[in-house]
Amino acid sequence: MIGVLAGVVLLVTLVLALSAALMMARRRLVPDLPIAVTVNDHAPFESRFGTDLLGALAAHDILLPAACGGAGTCGQCRVRVRGEPVAPMPAERARLSRAERRAGMHLACQLRLRGPVAVELPESILGARGFDCTLLRARFLTPLIRELVLEAPPDVAASVRAGAFVSLTAPPHDFGFDAIEVPERFAEDWSELQGLRAVTTAPATRAYSIASTPADLAQGHFVLLIRLALQPPDRPRLPPGVVSSWLFHVEKGTRITANGPHGDFRAQTGTREMVLIGGGVGMAPLRAIIHERLEQGAPQPISFWYGARRRDDLFYVEEFAALARRYPNFRFEVALSDPRPDEPWDGQTGFVHAALRDGLLRDHAAPETCDYYLCGPPLMIAAVMGALDEAGVPPSRIFFDDFGS
Amino acid sequence: MTEILLASILTDNLALSFFLGICTFLAVSQRISTALGLGFAVIVVQGVTVPVNALIHTFLLAPGALHWAGLPEIDLSFLRIIVFIGVIAAMVQLMELLLDRFVPALHRALGVFLPLITVNCAILGGSLFMVERRYDPLEAVIWGIGSGIGWALAIVAFAAIRERLRHADMPEGLRGLGGAFIVTGLMSLGFSGFGGLVP
Amino acid sequence: MIRLSHHLTDPLIRSNPVTLQILGICSALAVTTALATALTMAAALIFVLCASAAIISAIRRHIPHAIRLILQITIIATLVIVTDEVLRAYAFEISQRLSIFVGLIVTNCIVLGRAEGFAMHHPVGPSILDALGNALGYGLVLVIVATIRELFGTGRLLGIPMLPLAEQGGWFEPLRVMQLAPSAFFIIGLMIWAIRTARPEQVERPEHRLLSQHEEARP
C-alpha cells in the first residue's frame, strides 16, 4: 500500500517538477518582447518574439497565399525582407533560388521574429482578405471543366486585377460521383467516373484563377474555371482532387468560403505586342487579361494561342471569334493535338507550341520585343518555353502562372 | 572506465549490435549532412539524459533508494519506463529552448530532429541498459556519451555508404530499403569483429 | 464486416509495417535469436497495440489537442509496464532473455503511429482491427526471421531438436552466423527483396537514371 502511494506521489511530483522547470526555462529563455513589423512603408504594427511572419501578418489581416498551410512546401508565401540578410532555413533553400535568396527573399512561414523586421509585399496582397461568396450558376464547358459564377462582395471584386486568383475552401464531405449531374453530351466520358467517391474529413483549400471580364467584375461576379483533378494514368489508385470534386458537386445558392485576390500574374503596362498561350484551364487568367486590355483600348497586336486535345475540350470559341471580329488588332488561334477521327475539324492540328512557332515566331521580325503570357499544364509551358528560347526571346519577356506547382 | 567507453562505441553499439534507433536511422541517413546533424543531437541528448536518469534511478526508483526519506523497503523501479520517457521528453524540450536562445544557427540545423529523438528507441534503450548494468552516475556519464558517439558513428558511416549506393545498379527489389538492410547487416558484421577488444 | 476486414488484412503483406513502412524494427531484430522470444514479443506487442488503440479510440473526442501526444505516450507506457511486470511474474526466464526490449515497445514507432494515425480518428471497432492487423504483420515478420535464425542457427525450433546435429552424428552443421546480430538484417533485406519482386508496386522509384549510350536527353 505504501509502495503504491509512494509511486503515485513520486510520479506526480516528478511531472510537476519537470513542467515547472520547463515553464520557468521558457519564461527566462524566450523573451516575450514586442516586435515591430513594417510592411512596405506603412506604419509598423506589433507582434511577439518567436511568432512566424506568416502568422504575424495574418493576425493583422494581411493574408499571404499559403496553399500548404505554413508547412514550408508550397513556396507561395514568399516575401522580401529588407535589411541584414538572415541565414535561410532548409525549407527556404528548397523552394527559393539562390538569386532570390540573395535578394532577401524568404518564406514567411519559416521566418521567426527575433527583432524588428521590414518586409516588402506586392500592394495587391494588402487588399486580399477572407470573404464568403455565393454560387450563382454553374455549367459544364468540357467533360472535365466546369464554369462557376460566384457572387462576391463588391469591394473584393473591385480590387481584382486581371490574372489574379482566389483560394476556395471546401468543407468536409462525402458523396459519390453518381450524384453529379452531367449534361447528355458528356455522359459517355463520365461513365467510367460514376463509381468514384469523394470523401474527406478536413476542410481543404485550393487556388483558382479568376476568368471574369471587366463587365463581370463590375457586377461583382467571379467566373472560375474548375478542372476536375483526376488520377494520372500511371497512378490509378489516387483519389480524385478534393476541392475540385466538391466544386463539381456544389449547387446554386451554396455559400463558399474564399480568400483573395492573390497573385502577381498580370498584363504588363506599355504597348509591346502581347502573345498569350494557354491550355486547359490556363484559359482563365488569360481570358481575363485579354478582355481587360482590349476594353482599355490597347492599340498593340494581341494574339491568343490555345491548345487542346479534341473538339470537345474547346470552349469560349465563339466569344473569342467575336472579339477577333470586333478588334482588328486581336487574333485567335486554336490547335488540337488529338482530334477524334469522327468529328469535323478543319483548323490546325498539332501542339500549340508548334502552331505558335509556325504561325508567329518563324516569320516575326523581332519576337524578342513581345511580351509572352503562358498559363497551362506544365508540359505545355515547358514546350512553349523551348520554342520561345529557340526564337531568341529572353526570359525577362516571359510571364507565366504555373499555379504554384 | 575506458572499457565502458570502448564497449559503448564498438562492441555494444546501440545501432549495430542492438538495432536500436533503426527507424530514424534508415529514414534519415540518406545524406551525410543530415546524418551528422542527427548524430550530434543524439550525442548531446544521450549525454544528458542517461546521467540524469541514473541519478533519478539511484535516489528515487531503485529498490531501497528511498532510504533517505525513511522508506527503505519501497521498490519503485517498475516506474522507470514512464519516468525515463518523461525526463527524456523534458530534456529534449529544454535543449530546444536553450539552442533557440543561444545558438540559433544550430537550432535551425537540428530543429527538425529534436522531436524525432524523443521517441527514438536508442535514447530510451541507453537509459534502460544503464539500469540493467547497474552503472553508477560516473559510469553512466561515460556510457551516455559513448553510446551516443557509437550511434552517431554508425549513422554517419551508413549515410556515406548510402550516398554511393544511390547511383548503383541494383536489382529493383533491393533498391532502397532492402539494400539498406543488407548494408547495415554487413556493417554490423564488421563491428562484431571488435568482439574481443573489451574483456 | 467484409469492408472492415481489410483493416486486418492490409497490414499483413500489402502495407506490412516493417517491410514497407520501415516501422518498429528496433525490437524486431534483437529478439529473433529464438522463436520462443519472438512469439512472446509478438504477443506483447499485440496486447499493447490493441489495448492502446481501444483506449485511445474510446477517449479520442475528449483529448485536448495540445497534450494528445503526452497522453498517448502515458497510456502506452502504462500498458507496457503492466505487460513487463506480468511477464516477469509468470514467465521469468523468457522475460530475462527479452531484457529491455519489452520496455522499448513504448518507443516502437508502430504503436505511436497507429495511435496517432488511426485510433485518433476512427471508432473503437475498426481501431482494434487495424491494431490487430498491424501487430500481426509485425509478428509475422518476427516469426519468420526467428524461425530461420533458430532453425538454421541451432537446429532447434522452440527448443525442440528438428535437424540432426553433426556433432551428434547427424548431417546438419549449424550456421553460427545466424546467432549473430547481422543475420537478422540480411534475412529482412532478402525478405523485402522477395516481397518487392512479387509485388513490384512497392519498389522505390530511382532518383536518377543514367542514360544509355543511344538515348538522347529530352528537354
Please describe what this structure looks like.
The complex is a heterotrimer of chains A (405), B (199) and C (219). Chain A is of the alpha/beta class and 405 residues long. Chain A has 3 domains: 34-122, Roll (Ubiquitin-like (UB roll)); 128-262, Beta Barrel (Elongation Factor Tu (Ef-tu), domain 3); 274-401, 3-Layer(aba) Sandwich (Rossmann fold). Helices cover 29% and strands 27% of the residues of chain A. Chain A has 13 helices and 19 strands. In chain A, the strands form 4 sheets. In chain A, strands 11-8-13-6-7-12 form a 6-stranded antiparallel β-sheet. A 6-stranded parallel β-sheet of chain A has the order 17-16-15-14-18-19, sandwiched between helices. Chain A is globular and about 95 Å long. The mean pLDDT of chain A is 84. Chain B has 199 residues and is mainly alpha-helical. Chain B has one domain (2-193). Chain B is built from 9 helices and no strands. The longest helix of chain B has 30 residues, at 32-61. Chain B starts with a helix and ends in a 7-residue tail after the last helix. Chain C is mainly alpha-helical and 219 residues long. Chain C is 58% helix and 2% strand. A two-stranded antiparallel ribbon of chain C has the order 1-2. In chain C, helix 4 (68-90) crosses helix 6. Chains B and C meet through helix 2, helix 4, helix 7 and helix 9 of B and helix 2, helix 4 and helix 8 of C.
Number of domains of chain C: 1
Oligomer: heterotrimer
Number of strands of chain C: 2
**Silhouette of chain C:** globular
Cα radius of gyration of chain B in angstroms: 18 Å
Straight-line distance between termini of chain B: 13 Å
Q: What's the helix-strand series of chain C?
A: HHHHHHHEEH
* Order of helix and strand elements from N to C terminus of chain B: HHHHHHHHH
Q: Please give the largest β-sheet of chain C.
A: 2 strands, antiparallel
The largest interface is: B-C, 47 and 51 residues
Structural class of chain B: mainly alpha
User: Per DSSP, what share of the residues of chain C sits in E-state strands of 2 or more residues?
Assistant: under 5%
What portion of the residues of chain B fall into strands of 2 or more residues? under 5%
Total number of helices of chain B: 9
Note the overall shape of chain B.
globular
Q: Which radius of gyration of chain C do the C-alpha atoms yield? A: 21 Å
**Main beta sheet of chain B, described?**
none
Low-confidence stretches of chain C: 17-22, 213-219
How many domains of chain B? The number is 1
Structural class by sheet pairing and helices of chain C: mainly alpha
Total E-strand runs of chain B: 0
